[in-house]
Amino acid sequence: MRHIIYTLFCITVLMGSCIKDRSTLNLYKVSNIGIDTAGLPVKYTVFQQGTLSVKPTVTVENTYRERLKYKWTMNAYQGYERVVGTQEHLNAVITELPSAISYKLIFTATDSTNNVKAFFTWDITVISPFGQGLIVADTRDEQNSDVNLIMAFNFTTSILKDSASTNIMRNAYSTANGQKINGIVKRLSYHKYNSYKDVTFMTDKSFIRIDPNSYMKKSLDNELFALPQDKIQPDDISTAHYLNQHQYIINNGKGYGRYGDSQKFGYSFLASDKKGYQANKILGLQNPGVVQSGGVLYDELNNRFLLLPRMTSMADPLRNFDATDLNNPLTKFDPNNMGNKTCRYLFEGYDARIIAIMKERDQDKYYAYQIKLTNPFTGAMGIAVNDLSQNPEISTAKYFTSSNMEQVLFYATEYKVYATITEIGVPSTTSLRYTVKPGEKITGMNIYYGAGVYDPGAGRMYLPSTSDPTNWAKRVTLNAAQRLVILSTYNESTKEGKIITIPIETLGVGGLVTNPDYIRTYDGFGRITAFGIQI
């Protein structure tokens, strides 16, 4: 009986399979959504509060574009997600906190009829709007100053290519504080020690210190000192970034120092003897090493150089140079007796040498003196003198600087930049290296120093390939520290100031690059009166 039932069941099934399907059920092909990112980078760098724009091309098959829904999200660890867009193309302000770890930008296109999805992701690096860069102080009315910050390939580690984002935080000081700086900023200096950092600005009558994370004013004048000053008269400032970070200033002719995360300058440095001293130029060496001095100042009262205390001994008095050994053939001058000369510039050059640009007070004669501090001190630390008096246009030179990678002095007039070889034992030659455009005047010049121990790779530049210098595709990328001359210029007619960066292409002779493709310009400022690095 069971066999009969089974046989009948099989016959029924076979007969049913032969019946034509007359159902009304429609069968659809699955949607196919494509996200074309050809020509788009796989990762982006964007400033916090900056705008990120991404424009992929979405293609569809077996559905209609009108049925698609879009979602852009910024994602991070621990489940962080923020919707930043709902259109096919993204144009969003990025508010995420700066982070060393990249965010994930996820783009989702969804067919709303069947929930079919397509995805694409990008790595997004968010950097601070007040990150590494070049601080630029300018004025538009010759009475007040504002402060700007350039973050770009030349100055900012996280910007890896010249074609990547350039961000200029314009009028950062007045935006943060509701008013400009009263007076004209003549010097500025960034100081950082571990996590502590600040920026100090100098006008003719004030010291102003800000927090570089926000550009909010922190302290003013006497608030920078442990004891109130009889008079605030800023003259000079010098900050060492490379070792045991510290800072020196001159106020009302006297030297002061602070070390590490100390926010106040202590007592003024006592004189080395009963002669006293009066200074307006001071220099702290970036890396004094074992030398028992942090640098020098020039005593205008007694025409001599005096040794500064080391960074960890700021309470010590100034010190005289050892008696000069004039019988030593290596001795070229006596730092204790410079004659009737004034010091126009003090800066660090090749091999940690102190370069002093001096002028005869009663004659139109100019010199570059080189001091090399030793341990122990000796009477032969005045190692070289270069007479600049016959150099082209030296009497109209306003700005001087040098790189620690070559024995060359750069000096600038209002319109030209010259390079003079200062190598010991080599004939000094001077060459014209750069001329500004018609209508522009140079208002400042310095070497880009980089970020010291905090980021030796901060700042980059391009140079032509030595094998194929006319081929832009073969250009080389180099660390900009000590290889980049920075100029500020101003056009009186257009009232526009500019920052111009010029790489040193040929070391040893101060050979600036001549191909304009390798020179960068950052414009849109007022008259620039000071600039310096922010780490």
Automatic annotation (TrEMBL):
Keyword Lipoprotein: yes
Keywords: Lipoprotein
PROSITE patterns: PROKAR_LIPOPROTEIN
Name of the featured protein: PKD-like family lipoprotein
